[in-house]
Structures are given as structure tokens and as C-alpha cells.
Amino acid sequence: MSDKKVFFTGAGGFIASHVIPLLLEKDYTVRIFDNMTRGNRDRVNEFVATGKVELVEKDVRYGVGVREAIRGCTHAIHFATVSINKSVADPGESIDINMVGNNNVFAAAADEGVERLVFASSASVYGEPEKLPMHEDDKLNPLTPYCISKRAGEDLLGFYERTKGLSWNALRFFNVYGPGQKIEAYYTSVINHFIQRLRAGQPPIIDGAGDQSMDFVHVTDLAKGVVAALESEQANLPINIGTGIDTSIATLAKILIEAVGVDVEPVFNKRDVLVSRRAADITRAREVLGWEPTITVEEGMRALVRDSE
Predict the structure, then answer these.
(1) Which of 28, 62, 126, 146 is catalytic?
(2) Residue 287 lies in a domain
(3) pTM higher than 0.85 for the full model?
(4) Which residue from 96, 136, 240, 248 has the highest number of Cβ atoms inside 10 Å of its Cβ?
């Protein structure tokens, strides 16, 4: 067995299911730490069957359980979190899981001598950007308990770095999409909603002029960024993981209409909407991680349509 072992919270989820195969290819063993309330048990069982992955079915809110499970691990990836929409509906649970959970994992990693911790942060720490592309040194303005906990998580990593020498990278994920994603995923549910309507021969409905944009990054590319952050020489930085391209909702609709192959035009629901735009400056990801995306939005969306048939 390899002497490289990753403690991986929230690893029953969508993104982790793309990261774990890359870790196994690089000869890591993996200890999944997940309460499995939303985890994909079938997929986790497939990983466990390899003999290189084990499941500890516990909650990050319980510090003793975290401490026991992280012991003996050389690396850590912390994905366990409560989503944006759930954090607004129930701020108490969000603070409990996201803030207390963050501290439990970071403190245990520091005390147990983990060589590198990778934290799933979020582009949502920026709030509404003042300019594009969004750079890691831009002003942060997190707006929901989820976003606030991500920013606080980055600050907490800095504390454990200063006091106990913890080595970390915080990845600010932009709009992640790809095969295996739940259809209600907050930032990318628009993709699944459009595909469902197009399959039924109905046009996608867009609020306003469709100027709102996202930076869609394919989960295959993003997973490579996670592994690169686990192994990079440089550390202790927040790093954007996106494509640098802002794809408007109107453009997304056109891409998906073409991919599904139906003859419809989007319907624009004329009303005032907050035009939010997203695009990552990925200079730091290139320089620090040697990472950049390889899958264009057009390619990724076509593959998603094919996979969902």
C-alpha cells in the first residue's frame, strides 16, 4: 500500500467522484470522511471495492471523530459543506457544519502533521464583482452564510499556517458542471433546466436579456486542479479555478439548442434582473499549479447532452 493517504471530507459527492480516480492513479490511498446524507453510496462502494479507499461514515461537526480519522493521513482535502441555497434557508446549520466543520478539519490537520490541505472555497467569496476578470486579490464581499463561511475558512487556514505551520491551498471554484451532477445544483441548475425543456421540444426561457453570465468549468478539468493543489511546490494561497471566459445565459441557451439539435429560439421574459457576471483570472492557477482548463464550454455542454440521453 502507498504511504500517501488522503483524508477526504465530503467525498461522497459529485466533484469528489472525479477527483478520487485521479488520486488512485497517482498511488494515493483515500479515507473518505462523509456522513453520506447526500453522498452517492453506490459510487463510494465502487471506490471501496478497489481496496484503496475506505469510508468513515461520520460528520465533520464531531471533532473527536475527525481527529481519529485524520490520524495517519499525509494529505487532506476538505469538501464537506452546506450549499448556498440551504445556508440561506437554515443559517444555523450552515454555520454549524461549515464553520465548526472547517475548524475541526483544519485544527486536526495541523496537529496531526498533514503535509498539505486543499480546501474547496468558492468564487462566491467575491460577491458582485467590481470588474472582470476576478482576481484573487480583489475585494471580497460574501453575501450568504455559505459564502461567508468560505471566506472565513480561508482566514482560518492562515491562522493555522501562522501558528502551527499548516500548508494549504484554497481553491475558489467557479461554476462547476459535468456528468454525475445533481440536477438541482445551485449555480448550474440552469443547464439541466434548459436541457429538459429542449428535450421536450420547448424553448428555454431566459429572464431579462440573458446578459447574466457564469464561468463554467468542467469537473474533469477542475478535478485535475485539486490534485495539482495537493502537490504544488508553492502553497498558502487562494487560487481561482475557472476558465476565464464569461458565458452569458443567452449564449448558453444557443450552445444547448445546437447540442440537443432542436429548432427553437429562446424566449426572453422581459423584466428587470440583476445582471451578475462571472469570469476568473486564472493567472495564479497557471503559475502556481501549472493548471489550465482544456475543455471548452461548447465541448463540455455537447458531452453533457450526450451523457444525459
Answers:
(1) 146
(2) no
(3) yes
(4) 240
